[in-house]
Amino acid sequence: MLIDKRTEIGFLLFDGFPIACLTSIVEPLRAANEIVGQQAFCWSLVSELGQKVKSSANIGFEADRALSDCQSIDILFLLSSPVAGFGDPKQGNGTLRMLARHGTTLGGISGGVFPLVRSGVMTGRPVSVHWCYEAAFEAEFPDMDARREVIVSDTSRYTAAGAAAAFDLALHLIEDRLGSDIAHEVACWFQHPMMRGEGVRQQVPNVRHSGSGDKLPPLVAKSVELFARNVGQPISIAEVAQQTGVTPRQIERAFKQATGLSPSHYYRAMRMKAARQMVVYTKDPIPEIAAAIGYSSVAPLVTHYRAAFGLSPSEDRRRINRFRVEDNAPLPSV
User: Fold this and answer.
1) Digit-coded pLDDT (tens) for 63-117
2) How far is CA 254 from its chain centroid?
3) Residue (of 122, 142, 7) closest to 73 by Cα position
4) Helix axes of 248-259 and 263-281: crossing angle, nearest 10 degrees
5) Do residues 112 and 164 make contact, with C-beta atoms less than 8 angstroms apart?
6) Beta strands in 165-309 (DSSP E)
7) Is the full-model pTM beyond 0.90?
8) How far apart are CA 232 and CA 256, in angstroms?
9) CB of 313 within 8 A of CB of 305?
10) pLDDT band at 28; cut points 50, 70, 90
11) Cβ atoms within 10 A of the Cβ of 268, count?
């Protein structure tokens, strides 16, 4: 196979980016090059000013170039934690918009969708948001079309939710450039059983009693989906029963049997997880977080948050901030 032009990819790294997202997309591309015996793909590490960047594992990476030197790049992926951003947002965001205008394909992997959306290049476009960031994302970008699909893309934008999704995205790039046979061989090299694509939803952990199995029964799954749609505007168990065509008692029994929890306690646990995302990954005041998950005051949020995590939302935020300052460590990212 003769490759007439290399596809040049840049990885714009911010402090706190997850290494797994970088290696999960680079390694399949490297393997594709080896299989075809040519450099179909090449890549470089980019930072805002060409400075060294530290990953979420506190490992340093030397950048190959600064963001201002990316005009030759075909695809630029942003990798970061949700709270990362440019030191000079006006300049950095302006450069991303300029690259987009001149034909560079832009993408965000996991937390990298946050600075990507902040730049303004995703207006009117859907975004793949990792489930562990979705409450924080919706709090910051309430008008964006956030989706739970592992990959969301069009002709000039790519977003993917996490490291495994980044691997799938790399396989799609290989398939588009080199064909399905090469993509399949790369997948086999890494024992990657199947290539997920558009429309495939993320696997999301359930709030469940240990030993209850991996798959929720249909009634419980439908109820959980309704809970997830109504985190900010709480729905009653009676309303869930009405929408699923059963009685509240049937829902109670189904949840107890499948999860060891009552539906109301399961629902509360989901809301607390959403609250913690906003505590950790946003700067929203605690009263706003309480309102965002359907509480009219802070008091019940504090009570339930403490029961779930052993400390109040304010204490949790102070702990995270102290960890970042004293250990010079980024927030955890996926």
Assistant:
1) 999 999 999 999 999 999 998 999 999 999 999 999 999 999 999 999 999 999 9
2) 31
3) 7
4) 70
5) no
6) none
7) no
8) 24
9) yes
10) very high
11) 20
Under DSSP, is residue 8 helix (H, G, I), strand (E, B) or coil? strand
The torsion angles phi and psi of 112, rounded to 5 degrees, stand at -65, -15
Tokens of 243: 């929408």
Q: Compute the mean pLDDT over every residue in the chain, rounded to the nearest whole number.
A: 88
CA dist 152 and 198 (Å) reads 6
The percent helix, strand, coil of the chain (3-state, each to 5) is 50, 15, 35
Q: Nearest CA to 15 among 50, 47, 49?
A: 47
333 closest CA partner among 15, 52, 12, 11: 15
Cα 103 to Cα 86: distance, rounded to the nearest angstrom: 22
Distance CA 259, CA 5 (A): 54
User: Which pLDDT tens digit goes with each residue over 31-67?
Assistant: 999 999 999 999 999 999 999 999 999 999 999 999 9
